[in-house]
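Possible regression after last week's pipeline update?

I re-ran a chain I had predicted before the update to compare outputs. Posting the input and the new output here so someone can diff against the archived version. Not blocking, just want to make sure nothing changed silently.
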Amino acid sequence: MHALLRTTVLSATMSAVKKVERLTFPFQTPDPFLFAVYHDDKYPPGDGQMRAPRTGNGADFDPSREYRMYHGERVPGFPQHPHRGFETITATMEGLVDHTDSVGNAGRYGQGDVQWMTAGKGIVHGEMFPLVNDDAPNPLRLFQIWLNLPARSKMVDTAFVMHWAEDVQSVTDTDAGYELVVWAGELMGCAGQKPPPASWAADANNDVAVYFVTVHPGGAFTLPPSKMGAVSNRYAYFFEGDAVTIDAREIPAKSAVEMDAGAEAKIAVPASASASASLLVLQGRPIGEPVAQHGPFVMNTREEIMQAFSDYQRTQFGGWPWPEDAVVFPKDKGRFALLNGTETRPPNATAGAKEEL
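New output (post-update):
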């Protein structure tokens, strides 16, 4: 009788929460992830040339401002810069991004689109945020997430895939009070679109998942255990909202929560909360290799980092085929992807259609 009672009490008090930390910038991330940052910029109307009212200082990351120029001068964003040894996943909610790279690929994406790029042996790319509306604000909300590559894949060819918002799968449960968007992995009958071929995520056994969860006041969402159990790492980032609980534990706003991926977790927002809670969930089986990182290069050893700098100085990773360091496409271009010389557009899109922000 006492043994049965003890087992019942233990199971009732078990929680998927392992550790809660103050959210850093960039977010602290577990292997196989390297980096995650949330961009939330309230850009004003553009000036007709997609420019902001003020000039950037070259390194504008001030979180206290309504918007940041980042490395841009008049158009906010990140002019051409190199990468080697990992992947970028850029998952958008609002706003537009103009992409160009040293392979000659390009695109304008946003409004729920996801761009997944394998830097591999080396690529130079630019990411600019055009203010296409000159008669209305141009809000920008997106995540950029860096996913590591194992040593055997560090020097693979570069790759680029676009997942249009129309194809990104999601669930809205108004009765339970939550919304789920699956950017990678599988959950609640939704599956992320296919990653690039050399990605750590391309093997389902690596259990890579990226979820965006919104829980409304009075609502709840139950995150099931990972299919790989506790072998995988799992973090939840409470980045917007004022109140949330995980397994009945109150989580402070702006927190990173390390979780047991082998356990179910109930995410709930009290009915008294003044706002919905938004969480990013990152999950994956760790690569388990040494990480050597310096700026835009991520390898396994310091010697490989030095070689990356040498290779970039010598080859520029193929050179920059665009007329400007910070390329912005025409205002009426619309969403598109240019890959290996072929331009595609989202389902049912028409060239020149204005994007509604």
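Follow-up from reviewer: compared with the archived run. The two ends are 62 Å apart (CA to CA). Marking as no regression found.
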